[in-house]
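Example record for the data management plan.
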Amino acid sequence: MKLAINNSWLQWVLLAALVLSAECASSQTTVLLRAANVSRDTIWLSDLLPPEASTATRRAAEQIELGRTPQCHTTRFFEAADIERQTSSWPALRGLTLLSPVPVQRTCFPIRREQVQRAISKFIQGKESGMVIVGAPFSLSESILASRENPALEVEQALPDPARPGLQIRLRCVERTVCPSFWVNVPTQQRPQRLSTAVTAHETAKNTMLVESGQRVMLTFEDPPMRMQVPVTCLQRGSLGKQVRAMDPLTHRVFRAEVTGAGALTARL
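Corresponding structural encoding:
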């Protein structure tokens, strides 16, 4: 009888220890990262966890979507209230702590010079202009980052350089959301009688309406190295390179911006 009582008491002690251990584990504090880089298009709470986070915490955090990953050159911040609003109903996540707002950036890749050179050479050869790229290095207007490594590029526009022999060429990623349009100054040698063929790049695209009045498009504000994107409503239709007016539907503020692609506008900050 005494042995049975002792065994019963031991079972209660073990059960109490297990409950206490579970309560301690659930009350453990996990401090989120001070900053994070994300390569996907969606940010998950698990992206903000430190490596030492428990398996239970990480599994729960993998179920919570925080929103879209920002484009290159831009940063998205998460405050404590943003995290608490998402985790309040998850017991496994009650111990999460933010020491300060967490900045999240996209993992981006620099566009290599060989990629630019290849796209420009393909364009000039396709125009049968008789122009040849000079061996001297061309210059980029800024450091260009893409959200994917080694994206395919194509020439969007080509104009004669007014300051020196050569062309001012605007390129973009074939998949428009991967990188913004950018300019390259290209020194060239040319056969004068064939020059006009090379500087009329994408005349058809210039005459094609890429945005329509009333269309919801993305307006990109550029002030290198920073970029910011805002969804706006076009107030005018426009073709490539044209200036149009667009309105922020939240603030009703009207902007003037350049049409840089299908459903894409660009303005300076």
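Summary line stored alongside the record: The two ends are 85 Å apart (CA to CA).
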